[in-house]
């Protein structure tokens, strides 16, 4: 009996090792492919790369935008940064679940919740553990070519109030609608720029609407930097 249990534990260990190795390989391949196909470059104009805890919030236009942002982070920062993703898309099947959880160490949330539970709870748990996150305050992809940003949901404000010691960094990702147009299966080879801005300034008394307007303005200002 003991021999059987030992053999089973060894098999589980090997399976876990293979799964982790595959996840690391896919992560490496994804980073290289994303930067190769999109020519993605990083511009840190308002802050410097650092392992301090941060909320990186960005515009949301495609399913690969968090991959571009995540890939743009230096390795020590990337290892402590977890993308927030929608469970209704990333948990649809086993392969997507493997990608978001094992490859990208992401945290999934429900966009359509029952109103009884806190949809931000998984993110709060990650922040309490000391990790940084990649967050999309629009809540869904912006597929309207005539609108730069959709109205922000209140989640970013509530996270900033509950975790005031965590820096909130705006990040503008350019060319996403052209790099990954709606319906495309692979990115198109176009230049994309990931621009990191200065931390937002706020206090515990900052009004929610004022904070969200400030956050939107900071992103749009980064968009203008792209052409400078």
What portion of residues is helical? 40-55%
What is the helix/strand order? Answer: HEEHHEHHEHEHEHEH
Distance between the termini: 70 Å
Shape: globular
Whole-number radius of gyration?
Answer: 19 Å
User: Which strand-content bin applies to the residues?
Assistant: 5-15%
Question: What topology, given as strand order, has the largest sheet?
Answer: 1-7-6-2-5-3-4
The secondary-structure class comes to alpha/beta
Would you count the extended β strands for me? Answer: 7
Arithmetic mean of pLDDT: 82
Q: How many helices?
A: 9
Q: Let me know the largest β-sheet.
A: 7 strands, mixed
**Low-confidence region ranges:** 184-189
Q: What characteristics describe this protein?
A:
globular, single chain, 7 strands, alpha/beta, 7-stranded mixed β-sheet, 14% strand, 228 residues
Walk me through this protein's architecture:
By secondary structure, the protein is of the alpha/beta class. 44% of the residues lie in helices and 14% in strands. It has helices at 2-38, 65-72, 75-78, 87-90, 94-103, 121-128, 155-162, 176-179, 208-225; strands spanning 41-44, 54-58, 81-86, 107-109, 132-135, 167-173, 193-196. It has a 7-stranded mixed beta sheet, sandwiched between helices. It is globular and about 50 Å long. The N and C termini lie far apart (70 Å).
Please outline the helices and strands.
Layout: H1 2-38, E1 41-44, E2 54-58, H2 65-72, H3 75-78, E3 81-86, H4 87-90, H5 94-103, E4 107-109, H6 121-128, E5 132-135, H7 155-162, E6 167-173, H8 176-179, E7 193-196, H9 208-225
Parallel strand pairs: 1-7, 2-5, 2-6, 3-4, 3-5
Antiparallel strand pairs: 6-7
